[in-house]
Amino acid sequence: MDRMIRGISENARFIVADTTEIVREATKIHGCTPGAVAGFGRFLTAGILMGATLKGKDILSLRTDTDGLLGQMLLTVNSNGEIKGYLQNPDAELLAESENKLSTFIGKGSLRVIKDMGLKDPYIGVSEMNYGDIAQDIAYYYYTSEQIPTVISLGVSFDNEGNIAYAGGYMIQILPNAEEDFIGKLENKIAIMRSFTELRRGGMDLERIVGLIYENVEDETTEKIIEPYKILEEKKISYKCNCSRDKMHDGVITIGQKEIEEIIDEKGSLNVECHFCGKNYTFEKIDFQDDFK
Ligand SMILES: [Zn+2]
What we know:
This protein is α+β, with helices and mostly antiparallel strands. The chain is built from nine helices and 13 strands. It folds into two domains: 3-239, Hsp33 domain, CATH 3.55.30; 245-288, Alpha-Beta Complex (CBS domain Like), CATH 3.90.1280. The strands form three sheets. Strands 7-6-3-4-5-11 form a six-stranded mixed β-sheet, with helices on one face. A hairpin with a 5-residue loop joins β8 and β9 (164-174). α1 packs across α2 (34-50). The structure holds zinc ion.
């Protein structure tokens, strides 16, 4: 099962997650092309990283509205590390070789971040998506909407047969009043690091990747690490849909009695498919006998 770890140092907090199984499961459910996996897999990984500090009944949702080949993407993650997602065009493929494939799939537009923390109104943040890259788009969101300097690395890699080999990434957020010295050292370090999926392929586990991020490359003679850090939590994460017959039923009745009866008269039953997991629910007239009186 996939897992994530998160922790803190004097000047930053970090989250590292392996989302390989989650991305495989999402690919299976939605029938994604490799290009769609590259974009949607990064999006789901970003959701896991952003949702790492959720507590209790908190829920985080992300929604993209862009001109990319994948169309709209949605995800919801809860405090148990359970995530589910949807993308409009899982069968998207490039029509011609383009310079940057990922940005063609993701496109430009807007990102909506919705945090439901059990208060009266959820927090909704909207920011532009200008990079077509998810990682940079989310760093931009954090910087402009929450004033948090953030470094994010996301990746999905494939084996020679085209199957998903590794997926995951990390996010480092600079704490308020962080020392300039630390930010500079961290930036230098990240710039020379290999990608997350390459590190995983090289046999590094999540703990070693954190160690690598904090390893001091500038001055090995004095300090081996940039600053001491502590891992605070390890959590299992998974792709999980919480749909149920009752929830689907509640959704269906919003279209109204007349519409429901017309569909059932015409087709014999009313079929609804869950956008997030593909599960089918079939309803007949008797299922609505207590709803419309
Ligand atoms: Zn479902």
